[in-house]
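Aim 2 progress update. The chain analyzed this quarter is reproduced below.
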Amino acid sequence: MTRLRIAHVCLSNKWNGSEVVAAEYANGSASDHDVGMIFLEGDSLSHDFYRQRLDSRVRFAFVADAKSPAELKSAARALFNGDMPDIFHAHLGPGCRAIISAFPDSIKLGHMHMRFFTNQHAKLDGVIAIAPWQLRDIPKHFAGKAWLAPNFFQESEIKPAAEMRSRLQNMLHLSSGAKLVGSVGRLHSDKGIDVLIEAQRVLNDENIQLLVFGEGPEEILLRTRAKGLGNVHFLGYRRDVRHLVAGLDLFVSASRSEPFGLATLEAMAAGVSVVATRTRGSEGLLEHLQDRLFPIEDIHGTAAIIKKFCRSGDVPDYRLERFDKQKSLAALNAAYSEAYEQFKQPNVA
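Predicted structure tokens:
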């Protein structure tokens, strides 16, 4: 395998699911390639924040203006001691559009965190899909290559369920007999937290407690909706959420749209009982467990499935070998090698 210079371009100053995935792939590739990341400068996250989340071998740089080719070129060179990257791997719309504009003669790949978007991906040399359905949905007119590298889970971060359950109970002053139902994600309408709140209202059972992990633009609205419900708790953004999930009796994804469902996969890996709406991502994760899927925006259906599975205690075989980290990293490295061999040309400053 040729050792390449890979620049991940993630022009965001937030830290949600897509940014986490970008960092995990950068960290995972650092053994085989020279890897760097370019972020958007901002006040919300410090340089130390990024350093703590990136492998020590992953360098990173910032740009103040995502639309400035000069800034992007300077940041790219700063990653590799003055050399340009062999491959630019962009994440999300701003990153994809930026590399198309700033690096017309370089190899450019885009990660499909959601789906194929013509205005983001059509002019790239290739795209990385995280789920098989995304490959099927790529329009026929796309001239680039496409590869599949599924998201994966971090097995080393799983903590003992009893310890995490006790921690959650103590945090919220709950009795040992309470059933803990949780959801993790950005507080946005796509995630369906409003449906979960209304399902809790329907259940009207103080023994079933809903724990909402995350922050986002709809937090105030959701807190207002849940006002007066003693069985709904907002825990905000927590770095230890991957640990705490292991203490749940049931993880619920009520998303209206979910291209993959990384938080759901992490709950599965933690050995937690999981149910999810019939989004395209969750249908892939739970393809062999159809009874754990329920309709989108169905409040009573959501309440019924929560009541059923939070009390059963059964954790099925999730077939987690489909999301093995090493297999996904090998698939990504194969994509890099194929892209480099097919599209390589002299770098232009």
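Residues 21 and 151 are 7 Å apart (CA to CA). The domain at 155-320 is CATH 3.40.50.2000 (Rossmann fold). These observations will guide the mutagenesis experiments scheduled for the next reporting period.
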